Amino acid sequence: MTDKLKVPSTSRLILEHAIKMYESPLEKAYLDAIDFSETSRVASDIRRTCAWFSDAVCYRKKFIREAVRERLQQQAPQQVIILGAGLDPLSLHLLETYPGSISRILEVDNGYITEKKKIYDKILQEDSPLQLILCDITDTVKLYATLGQHGFQPGEPAVIVFEGVIAYITNEEFTGIMQLFQTDDLRNMIAMNYTIREDTVPEKFLPVHHQVIALLEQHISGRFNLHNKTSLLALITELGGIPDRLESLSETEKRLTGRNQVFHEPGEGIMEMASFRL
């Protein structure tokens, strides 16, 4: 594509750090449509502060992809709901990797949707099961109604991707959103990450942890909602959910690659991963 889409450099932060994940034809076409000529100050500061940030982002995305893959192997087709989708092209990966296994994909965000749709309209077929929805996910009444208007079927099993979201909202907002997907038979699966509290971080890693959190909070002009496994498990239990995996990045790396090359101890890497049935 000759006309590159300009989006704020700060909005591309996670996308840039995960760029090596996007290798399929559709993903490459998507990236080719975005102008990466500018680099944000926060991206540069994070690279100088920690060399492993890109690895953390990539393992986060690998965990999400693996959770979806395992779920689709157990039962297909399923709905996929991506809340707080941002600029990430996860939908394109799923469409290319699991044709026929997904009944619909609904991406929801209160930003970037118009920009993404311009690109998707150029690279996807007209009969694609993917829809992009502009909505504030914390407005749960509007969210549920809007999902229904775009084909969400509450009676059918669904995968809900909640990647990179809980740090930006309150626990009450998280619970309110998740309650929309509660079921009697636990037919839905949530895959997510959370930013970890310092009480789970090894002492030698604390200085870098503090620096990165400070940079990210400066980036959003606010405070992160931080968790550890105990506090997140309490939220899941309150919702009546059943955890499948609660694991550190070191555990994710070992499980997916067979060794620990980047993250050697629980508490390294700022974030941890979770999947649970609801």
Summarize the structure.
With 278 residues, the protein is an alpha/beta fold. The chain is 42% helix and 16% strand.
Proportion of residues in extended strands = 15-25%
In the sheet with the most strands, the strands line up as: 3-2-1-4-5-7-6
How far from one another are the termini?
41 Å
The SSE string, one letter per element, is HHHHEHEHEHEHEHHEHE
Question: Which runs of at least 5 residues are low in confidence (pLDDT < 50)?
Answer: none
Sheet bearing the most strands, described?
7 strands, mixed
Q: Got a strand count? A: 7
Look at the helices and sheets and give the structural class: alpha/beta
SSE blueprint:
Layout (H helix, E strand, L loop, with lengths): L12 H5 L7 H8 L8 H9 L3 H22 L3 E6 L6 H8 L4 E8 L3 H11 L6 E5 L5 H10 L8 E5 L8 H9 L9 E7 L10 H15 L8 H10 L3 E7 H9 L13 E7 L1
Parallel strand pairs: 1-2, 1-4, 2-3, 4-5
Antiparallel strand pairs: 5-7, 6-7
Structure write-up:
With 278 residues, the chain is an alpha/beta fold. The protein is built from eleven helices and seven strands. The chain is 42% helix and 16% strand. Helix 3 packs antiparallel against helix 9 and helix 4 crosses helix 11.
